[in-house]
Task: structure prediction
Amino acid sequence: MAHRSLITMDYLRGLLSLSRERQRPAALSSSILNKAPVDILLYIMDYLPSESAVAFSLSCMHLKCLLGTQHFLRVTSSTKDTLALLNLLALDLPNHVVCSACKRLHNMQNLRRYNSATYSAGSTTYQYDSLRFPACVSQDRNNNTHAISNLFGTTAFKMAIKRYHQQPECTKLLKFMSSKAVKIMETGDYIRQFREECRVFQGCLLHRLQSVYISRKCLINTPFRRDPPSEMICPHIKFRTSEHSIGSGVRRCQECRTEYRVDFKHYDGHGLAMFFTRWKDLGAGPEGEVWAQHLSSRASLGALFASRVRAQTSVGLQTQLEVRPQDGDLSSAFEDSDDFKFDSLLTSGNKAKLFRFQKQCLAKVI
Result:
């Protein structure tokens, strides 16, 4: 505990040194505080929260020298006070967010360092390999945030929302959290092509996932009904037991802000294709209840099902959780028009890539 406190102290001291300048104007020269005795200032600080006392001493180098570091030492011994101070500092640091897991300020320029995919197999980002593994990435993995997206976690979420409130027209971070191009892969008996996109709407982060599946083995009897591919809708609704929803338009979970739809379309010479579209409203920040409702951690799932009537079957429970959304809900807010086209993922270029990949897979089978 003492060692951890020393590490936090060194980190905060490093942050505080950022505000130092070689030549600094006398900020108190025009303030009444310039004439206040040091004893009075110390007395005032004793009535302030620890983080506010430290912030007050940092407002002027002269004050910092006069008031000493006793309040600073108190802040470093408390996680709550440390985070409170970091939140105060972040108000004047437009490119930083507070990470409660790491107990640090994270710079938006280092967004990749706090993304779980950076440390996954197949990653081509190596610049952070020699650095300490971020606690926020470990937390994201424990909370299974990959079920929402592999492209971002809680830190990127915070950064995107902060940037939105500063510059609503700036979408640089959102583009990083979205797919620049469609991805294609083999999964079981299918070929999957997909893309993701993030937007901020009315202060909330929205995420859309679009997937299309075609068979990689057979063009005639595609086993979608018998053995459909697995897609994560949300912790409360399982894709494999929701086939009664296929072709019935947009559906919504009652337990979290998730909407989805499943559609089919036949392509001559290529067989049946299944389209899966999912929309999520992730809320205004990862500390909120809205975000927590999307996480599929064992603890949250256990609490969810324990609160249900034990006599219900899983299918019956799912039917209860699925409802039709009203017009103008999440999917409508995310889409650019009311005329939603479920196959919009398959542009002419994407379609050519998908069918070419299928042809290569079929050649291996033969």
